[in-house]
Amino acid sequence: MKRFFNPCRRHRRDIALLAAGALPEPDRESMENHLATCAPCRAYLAELQCAAVPVAKWAESAANLQPSAAAKDRWACAVRAAAGPRPVPTAEPSSTFGDWWHDVVWSSRRVWAGLAAVWMLILAGNLSLHDHPQGFTARSSRPAKEIMMAFKDRQTTLADLLADHSTPDEADRPKLFLPKPRTEYTRILGA
């Protein structure tokens, strides 16, 4: 999108090389042709040449500058201090946690706050969409009558399928003593 609004952006590097005098000859001809037709690029070249001239003259004028004795002493001390052994810092748990907190959490606190808000929304959604655990345990502890009846029917069907029908069952054998109804017992006791 930027190239659409600034089509000369691709020529910036070549213009900088031209201002420094480092652009190769074949590229120089095409760049000079572009500069002849483009006023913004000519203005950019003029800015670079204004900045390049003092930098080129600086090398000539700074050749006779020498640092003072105090500056040389400071540099020597800095070099010796950098070359010497560095003390190993001892890490205290409180400072280590504080450093970690500052580097990881505090530097990106908006991200952590956003993540916490998302997790709170997810938690609220889960709690509102699902039944509460108390209601779930109450319903699961007492199964419905239909479920129990279906379970008993399946159990009797399975027992019938697993039963051995080759020998008569005790229920099928004739009983020698048939129990009398309770009403007859009460007549006997009451008479």
List keywords for this structure.
191 residues; mainly alpha; 10 helices; elongated
Write the layout of secondary structure elements.
Blueprint: H1 2-5, H2 12-20, H3 25-37, H4 39-61, H5 69-83, H6 93-105, H7 109-129, H8 133-141, H9 145-162, H10 182-190
Helix pairs in contact: 2-4
What is the compact description of this entry?
The protein is an all-alpha fold and 191 residues long. The chain has 10 helices and no strands.
What does this structure look like?
The chain is mostly helical and 191 residues long. Helices cover 70% and strands 0% of the residues. It contains 10 helices and no strands. The chain has helices at residues 2-5, 12-20, 25-37, 39-61, 69-83, 93-105, 109-129, 133-141, 145-162, 182-190. Helix 2 (12-20) packs parallel to helix 4. The protein is elongated, with a radius of gyration of 49 Å. It starts with a helix and ends with a helix. The mean pLDDT is 77.
Give the tally of β-strands.
0
* pLDDT < 50 runs, ≥5 residues: none
Share in helix: over 70%
What about the largest sheet?
none
Strand content: under 5%
Mean pLDDT score, rounded? 77
Radius of gyration: 49 Å
Q: Structural class given helices, strands, pairing?
A: mainly alpha
